[in-house]
Design brief:
Helices cover about 35% and strands about 30% of the residues. By secondary structure, the chain is of the alpha+beta class.
Amino acid sequence: MPESKSKFLIPAVGAAVLAAGGIAAYTYFKASSGASSDALGSAKVVPSTALMATYITTDSQAWAKLQQFGTPEAQKLVAKGLENFNKQMFSDSNVSYEKDIKPWAGSVMIAVLPPNPVKPAQLKVPNAPINVQQESNILIIVGIKDKLSALNFANKLKSQKGVKFQESDYKGQKIIETTENSKPTYSVVLNNSHLVLAPEKQAVEKAIDTFKGESSFANKEGASSILNKGVDVKNSLAQIYVPDYAGMVQQLAAGSPQTKQLPPQALAQLKQIKSVVAGIGVDDVGVRVKAIANLDPQLNKFQYQSSPGNIVGQFPTGTFALISGNGISRGWETLVEESKNYPEMKQGLEQVRGQLKFVNIDLDKDIFGWMNGEFAFGAIPSNQGVLANVGFGGALVFDTSDRKTAEATLTKLDTLAKTQQINVANRNIGGKDVTEWQIPRQGALLAHGWLDQDTVFVALGGPVAEAIGDRKNPSLDNSDTFKAVTGSLQKPNGGYFYMDMDKTQTVPLIKSLISSDANAITILSSIRGLGFTANSPDKSTSQLEMLLALKPNTAK
């Protein structure tokens, strides 16, 4: 949020609290201190029209868990950032977050309401086509956990300079309009337990309507169950609730002038996802994000299958990034089936099919048909030959039950390479026959071979082929970093995305991109790695999990 707007929220908060109670409420506030608000309680004052809501905890113990991670340099950088934020927020007052706000401010819910149409005056543009654009519309609900501290804070802000306050009544509730530099913020305190703020008065009025009995986000179809369950993460920092995923995307897209109207086919795809709930937490390994998507089993056409995870053992321990999965052929079949509903996609596929037929390759059979087992793509460091400038190469490894078709496809590709004046030669690596596409004075551009009866690899660069083919090297699944980053992720799963941050930063191409940003280097140096996986226990549920594995804080 812009600096001027963030500073402006402070007097707005104080004004609302004063209007709600005043000095006469001192006794009541003191007697009722200690009340708090959970996600469900906050959601009861959010209108049912809300598209999504994010619940952020202010529990100091949960946030303090982050202090167990990070290099001393990173800890100093984060501390400096927080200090600068506090200075910007409270630069024109003697307000302290720790002393004045933290004691009373409970958890925060930020709700996204449907975008508001622009005002008619904004549409009076000569010779311009009529295009009713919409503005974003948010509602902030802050739980008041200590009413006495809140009142003390509000009284402290009574004499704030440069700010105008105007009070109005709506259905018996006092709405405070706080204006600075012609920018208003509207606020109200409901039931002396929730402070509601918004940049639009209409949003606050809708919250009051909800408080008075109109339908709330808490009892909206699809929202009640995800609000009650949430996502199980340790030391939860935030929970995100989207009760109608397709509806949210549709309304937000309609409100964006840069976005075209969603075609019916795209909307049908979105409707596969009914609702989404996600959680962000901190545990002993790092920051963990979990998300659960509730699917419509009648619309979900993707056939999920868990991955055994054995393919990771085919990569050397030096691999710094990896994506693995299972059953490319099934995914391809689903894509082809879906393309029937998308003329442009179908036309594109037909064009690719036609071009490959000129070189005697069947896209469906020769390329994707035999990729029916586990697969993985890994990035491996190398500064030799054709890889000298970028500092790394890649390798694709596939398990297949159709070796005959796979071999025939590779032979066709070798023949095609020869027509382009590329030298195709055989070589022995670790006792395995490997075919290389060689470039004069630079070595192998590409290599392929069989690791066992059912496992084939294709490598970019001769050194990468050596790293894959020579099994004397330790494998990735035995490395400490891979275990630390992926070991606690859910199993079974459909595969991994994995990145070793230390090794990634040593790659010349990556190193050159971040070398000029000292802060980025400091932050990245505190990250051990990134892991991501997904699974689907049934056709109505998809679960995703991401772990940002952090290094422990070594500061004394």
